[in-house]
Amino acid sequence: MSEIGHRTLRVNGLDMHVAEAGTGPLVVLLHGFPELWYSWRHQLPVLAGAGFHAVAPDLRGHGQTSAPTGVAGYGMAEHVADVVGLLDALGAETAVLVGHDWGARTVWAAGELHPQRFPGLAVLSVPHSARSARPPVEQLREWAGDRFNWMLYFQEPGVAEAELADDVTRTLRLMMYGLSGDAGELGIRLVAGLPRDALLLNEIPEPPGPLSWLTAADLSYYSAQYRQTGFTGALNRYRNADRDWHRLPTLGTTALRQPALFVAGALDSAVRFGDPTTMRERVPGLTELILLPGCGHWVQQERPHEVNDALLAFLRSI
Question: Which residues have a catalytic role annotated?
Fold first, then answer.
């Protein structure tokens, strides 16, 4: 098994920490929230062992990568520019992009805006969506009504930070459990079934026992990093949703024709509130759509072997 190395690269004005393994065709893996490069710990050595150069950065505002000040520094345009800049820093013309959660949204965006740089897209958990008719936060307020909504809760600077930072280890333990397959239907309630004035963490019970896919050492790594950085950089991604809609008016309007793979947990609320098969109209290059039974949102951590098999088959096919 290939070892994972670490270094810092100058990327798009940032000092970007990357974890990497192997040599060969470049595969870049983008994490989500509340995650880090570490979310790909099961994928990096396997991809390296199969003959690929696998690189997983801490994204801006996360882990050991620079954290710009101000909400505007965390828009989708900035995240896509970071990925393009990472390829340039690595001396690569192209790379296959792999992304989960917010990283998945960046993969879809980068694939649409720079198809020549990203000839293959592997996306976990978050299906492609077309451009909305109105700014997304505005639409969410109407849809949510008197119900709690994560995106809306994260909009006001300082509010979510206060709750999440109070006990970082508890925050991460509960969020990881609450949206996992271990919690069953709880994830659906957390996304759409809470009253508007709910405090997010108070609605998630402690896991009944150790999680097989998240060890004490794993949780300790995540916690140490988020205690150091806080949650503001990560939450600022959510606070750019409407700004992105205005700044990138073509995003979500162009078909993605390069080969694409989609993998998600069947219990993930990101796919249970909509039919992911409908994205085939917008992603005609979609080669395979895999839903893993009993799996929740943290798919590459909950089901690493299945995800690795799917990624390797996809990478070898293109």
Answer: 101, 297
